[in-house]
Write a structure and sequence with these properties.
Strand content: under 5%
Shape: rod-shaped
Radius of gyration: 32 Å
Order of helices and strands: HHHHHHH
Structural class: mainly alpha
Helix content: over 70%
Mean pLDDT: 76
Largest sheet: none
Low-confidence stretches: none
Length: 252
């Protein structure tokens, strides 16, 4: 009965995780579609970084949704893969280099409006994911993504304000580089956590295999001893029968 209750609780948790991931996946796809167009039109590296991060998050949520019903090892491996693959960092670095060669002033109005809309969307995502952040390494990874998105949106709004105040593209470049550093730092943290869990699972499997080998050896030895004892018993029985027959012949 207790096992049944545990299984039902786990199944219910997985269904809740799946529903939450579907919602945040849809929100991030919509924000990416809106943000990438606005970033290109406004000429903002920070806004492009933010929107491409939404694309990376959407991929992360999709992978996380795939492994909701998988094992802990599969979840750790997905978290490991999620943080090894992030399309935004290299693209944003290329954009920053281009802006250093060809300086431009982005359209701060678009930056400000889009960043605030994205902040609302990511706040909803963070609220939904917070209740699952301690479930496993998979949900911890997606919660980390959502938390970084909040900081990213605020940073883009700050960059828009600074561009308006200074009438310069430098705040946009500086914030874009800061966001890249933030994403890399977060990636390293989740990468380390997932790697540790994968190693722990491998160690547990090795211990389990070693225990199975040991048990097989013990059972094999016991079986061989049983055969020896049975042979000895048969030989003793045959010896008694021979002696009994010889005794009867002598009497006769």
């Amino acid at each position: 009965m207790a096992c049944c209750e545990d299984d039902c609780a786990i199944e219910g948790l997985r269904e809740k995780q799946s529903s939450t991931l579907k919602i945040v996946l849809g929100i991030n796809v919509a924000m990416f579609a809106a943000g990438i167009g606005a970033g290109i039109y406004a000429g903002s590296s920070a806004l492009l970084s933010d929107s491409l991060d939404n694309l990376g998050d959407a991929m992360t949520y999709g992978l996380s949704l795939y492994v909701v019903y998988k094992s802990s090892q599969a979840k750790a491996q997905v978290a490991f893969i999620q943080r090894r693959f992030d399309p935004s960092n290299s693209f944003v670095l290329g954009q920053v280099i281009y802006k250093l060669v060809v300086p431009t002033v982005p359209i701060f109005e678009i930056m400000g409006v889009v960043s605030l809309l994205a902040l609302v969307g990511n706040s909803i995502c963070l609220y939904l994911l917070t209740r699952h952040k301690t479930d496993d390494v998979n949900m911890s990874s997606v919660w980390e993504c959502s938390r970084n998105d909040i900081a990213s949106n605020v940073s883009v709004f700050v960059a828009a304000s600074a561009v308006w105040f200074f009438q310069s593209g430098w705040p946009d470049i500086i914030i874009a580089l800061a966001l890249v550093c933030l994403f890399l730092r977060s990636a390293f943290r989740v990468f380390t956590s997932a790697n540790s869990q994968i190693r722990a699972v491998h160690s547990a499997l090795q211990i389990s295999d070693l225990a199975a080998i040991t048990i097989n050896k013990v059972l094999g030895r016991a079986e061989r001893r049983f055969h020896v004892l049975r042979q000895c018993s048969q030989q003793a029985r045959m010896t008694r029968q021979i002696r009994r027959a010889s005794f009867q012949d002598c009497i006769a």
